[in-house]
Amino acid sequence: MNFLKKNNFTPAGGVPLTPMIDVVFLLLCFFVASQIFAQWETEIQVTLPTATTGERPPRLPGEVIVNVLADGTAIVNGQRLDDAQLRGMMNRLVQQFPGQPVLLRADKATAYEHVVRVLDTCRQADIWNISFATLASGG
After folding, report:
1. How many structural domains is the chain composed of?
2. Alpha carbon distance 130, 123 (integer Å)
3. Residue pair 106/115 in contact by the 8 Å Cβ criterion
4. Which H helix or E strand runs over 105?
5. What's 62's domain CATH number?
């Protein structure tokens, strides 16, 4: 007696749509979430200095925005970080993503020493891809 049934099921030719729809939906969720985080970074109250020759480059994927307030406080992803915490975060970024782009947004009232301190922290973590945010002047 043969208890095993012969399975003669042969799938019809074509592309399975369910996995493809799942992947597209996950990509959509990812891009919507990343856009929201990018907007949150620019909502921090930092008054940028103006530049007449500045251009608005396209945002780089995975770009980390470091906001430096007038009192020298560094804010990344809505968290206030001291120098040690900022250095630790930068070290982890470089380990996971070499060549990680960083956008530095410093308030125009920020003392130069605070900007240099953040730049030095980036350099110690071997981050070299740094951009500075400015506003385009009206004239």
Report:
1. 1
2. 10
3. yes
4. strand 102-106
5. 3.30.420.270
Could you read off the pLDDT of 72-100 as tens digits, one per residue? Answer: 889 888 889 998 999 999 999 888 888 88
In a domain, 111, yes or no: yes
Let me know: does 127 contact 100? Beta carbons within 8 Å.
Answer: yes
What's the confidence (pLDDT) of residue 139? Answer: 47
pLDDT of 88: 93
Question: Which residue segment(s) compose the domain that 67 sits in?
Answer: 45-136
Reported as a single tens digit per residue, the pLDDT across 42-60 is: 556 666 666 666 666 666 6
Q: Give the residue ranges of DSSP H helices in the chain.
A: 17-42, 83-96, 112-124
Residues with Cβ < 8 Å from 134, sequence gap 6 or more?
48, 49, 50, 51, 54
Cα–Cα distance, 118 to 46 (Å, whole number): 16
Domain membership of residue 38 (yes or no) is no
